[in-house]
Specification:
elongated, two-stranded parallel ribbon, single chain, binds zinc ion, Rossmann fold, 5 strands, alpha+beta, about 130 residues
Length: about 130
């Protein structure tokens, strides 16, 4: 406990408004679907405090930088690019924006293509 106090750590909960803001930011890049509730909390606090977000999670880095924040990584070199996620058909290659309510599952198809019925996958938007 003394160590914690010495480190001058702030223990805070993100207010609901900050969490909504975080979700909006994460939706803008399509990262929300793959962020955990804890990730969203962390993002909300970083946004509210305008803090430098220290994380090795590329999705958090991507979202926070897209929202105008600064990031530092703990272990890995920071990702160099900000990207947008999209749905892409495995069959015909048709793409569509990632819906905010897309399944939070980590893997597997997330729907069917409206054009050809093949599974859609979450991919980085090209270019
Ligand atoms: Zn298709």
């Amino acid at each position: 406990m003394m160590l914690v106090e010495a480190a001058d750590i702030l223990w805070r909960d993100a207010p609901p408004s900050a969490i909504e803001h975080a979700k909006t930011c994460a939706s803008a890049t399509g990262d929300l679907a793959r962020l955990s509730d804890v990730d969203v909390d962390v993002l909300a606090l970083a946004l509210e405090l305008k803090a430098v977000l220290v994380t090795d999670d590329y999705r958090l880095q991507n979202t926070y930088r897209h929202a105008g924040g600064s990031i530092e990584s703990v272990v890995n070199a920071p990702s160099k690019h900000v990207w947008i996620w999209e749905l892409r058909c495995k069959g015909c290659g048709a793409t569509s924006p990632l819906p905010a309510d897309v399944s939070r599952s980590k893997k597997g198809p997330v729907g069917e293509c409206g054009a050809c019925g093949s599974p859609m996958e979450i991919k980085r938007r090209r270019g």
